Amino acid sequence: MDHRRGVAGAALLVLQLAASPIGGEAQQEDNCNGRASLRIAVRDESGSVAIPNATVLLRWTESEAVRRPVRQVTQSDGRLFLCAPGETRQATLWAEFADASSGEAVVTLEPGVTREVELRLLVSSGRTGRLIGQIRDARTEDPVAAAAVSLAGRPETVQTNRRGRFIMSGVPVGVYELSVRHLGYAPLSHPISVSLGMTTDVEVGLVPDPVEMEPLVATATRVRRLEIKGFYERKYWGEMVSGGTFYTAADIERRRPVLISHMISDESGIKLTCGMRRSKCRLVNTRRSVGFANEDCVMSIYLDGSWINRNPRDTIDDFVIPVEIAGLEIYRGAASLPAEFGGYASGCGVVVIWTK
User: Fold this and answer.
1) Domain spanning 128-222: CATH 2.60.40.1120
2) Any residues with CB less than 8 A from the CB of 197 and at least 6 apart, and which?
3) Does domain 3-122 have CATH number 2.60.40.2470?
4) Full-prediction pTM beyond 0.85?
């Protein structure tokens, strides 16, 4: 097998998890000051080839509080070591590489103990997509844990975690009958479509049996590239704590702006300032200043993860038009700004654009 070709064309990551304490010597070397820790390795299907630059995502849980997911990249040897924050007792983790991803895995943590996790890359030649979702009580909106989720004609059945979430990876492209079962709720069956290389996101509201009402099902197709880049995570947490403004391609299409700068400048606290000939326009944060009365506080622009407006004469409209945009993030201040878009040039706020 050509492992290099297999890694590039992978369609599925399968998570194999072995939790075993590491001795005192290794723990002292890693120096987490008595806290729990994780040693993660990402490898190919055979387990013999390390996969560098794979993205590992972790969500730490402390008592009933769930921290914002952390995104880390494996080193050149395909490994990653992380110390658990505070008194964390549980970690939910998965991995992303190219168009592939793993299912979620839950690891129980103990102070002073390192758990080892191995993520193996499984090469798949089939045409597959991914299905993720959340199951809630239709009346209370509470998550439903341990619900059995399956697709008609597929042998796999998964259970929702404590937050009611589930993931099915490597699902062949097609239309399926989604089945959700949980004791005390009316069973649900609903048609669902899985698209090539895409993630279908489904939200289900189960009805407590025997209440007379219809189950609630909502579906949306996520752009796989945006998911890998963390757009949907930042959108979820940002909207929860008012930490930013987010637009998908569908949102932009509904607005139909001639220039994307026009749509952004419609946001509260942002204005578009232009030169005398209106050929060069910049997005300015009116709620902040740079310390000089006559100097505009110009927002930084990131395009597909790279800072692009280093030249003050460059404008956002020089680089992209609305129909090319898959996702848009707007941050007005440092308090809401994700670490990956921080820096000395981001004090006036940041606009992040992801292309299709």
Assistant:
1) yes
2) 11, 99, 128, 129, 224
3) no
4) no
